[in-house]
Amino acid sequence: MIDSKKGLQELVDRALEVDAVALDTEFVWERTYYPRLGLIQIALSDEDCYLIDPCSISDLSPLGRLLESDRVIKILHDAPQDLAILRQATGADAKNIFDTRLAAGFAGFTATISLAKLLQELLDINLAKTETRTNWLRRPLKRKQELYAMDDVRYLRAARVLLLGHMVNNEVRGWLAEDLQRLDDPNFYAGISDDKRYLKVKGNTSLSRESLAILQDLCRWREKEARERNRPRGHIIADRVLLPIAREKLTDRTAIVNSGPISEKCVSRYGATLKNLVEKGLARPKDELPPSLRNKRLKNREKITLQEIHEFIILKSDVLGIDPIVVGSNAELREFILTPPHKQRLPIVNKFSGWRGPFLLEILSSLDNRSTKKTAAA
Questions:
Q1: Of 76, 85, 143, 246, which sits most exposed with the smallest number of CB within 10 A?
Q2: Cα–Cα dist 203/106, whole Å
Q3: Counting Cβ atoms within 10 Å, is residue 369 exposed (0-12), middle (13-18) or buried (19+)?
């Protein structure tokens, strides 16, 4: 257990001398906006594992030297959330990341595989699941808790080697390298921006553009309030309260109280702010309103094209030994279909940059050729 800044500095000095280290975090995220970091695990080898105690070390910036190193590979499983937490804790942008869950999708496994399942498949090792409900902020930790935490990093170096060994196709290795490089950009895992938070509110597709503007302003304000108070956004005001306020464009206190499960205390605190935000949204010029979300439904021909693209992706992915989901999710492919013409679709969804662009263009070309042959035969 590393529980002093001096000990952390010494560990980082050692870590900077190896080719790769494994990293993981344990945190509590229940009543705060930001996750509360309880533990950082690091392995220099399978028998050289350490626990860094954020509860004892107030300044974790020395760890930033390791995160920022271009030379040392940092191996994590399902890296984005851990990287966001480590960035918040150290102020450093991580470089040279290897995500074993992402790599699994290019190595013949599902891209959503858990660490326990991956290690079982690769190494025939069964991780204990006894401490999944541990409060990682409570001290002292029991020995079985420490061993459980270290097991999350102990085998990651071996897993990386084995995953790369499963990728016999150099083209696939190149695709993985492209995707891993995106993890060097904190914007990739920083989460959705405040301006786009309204897009995550369930039921938003039923709103007019004017109501969407109101919802956007409400969500932007709520995010700022939650961040400043370090409270979950739902503890400020729930989505199911904001949605009817935006839909009905409510500015009357009584109407707001009757609109949903909102307490008098909440209305007393935020009522005036909510009223002002609704009025602000109503005053927004038409050309500054968010685009409608109502036209996202696929027509019959588009549904057929989407199904055909899915089928081609599955066939080609099977030949290459990759999980079809790494090409794109159903939602991303839908957006791809809804943006004509084909060659202009690619820049619309960031995920279709790099290797995915030619991959999808090849599929579209195959579909066009098949359509042409059918027409000629008819």
A1: 143
A2: 35
A3: exposed
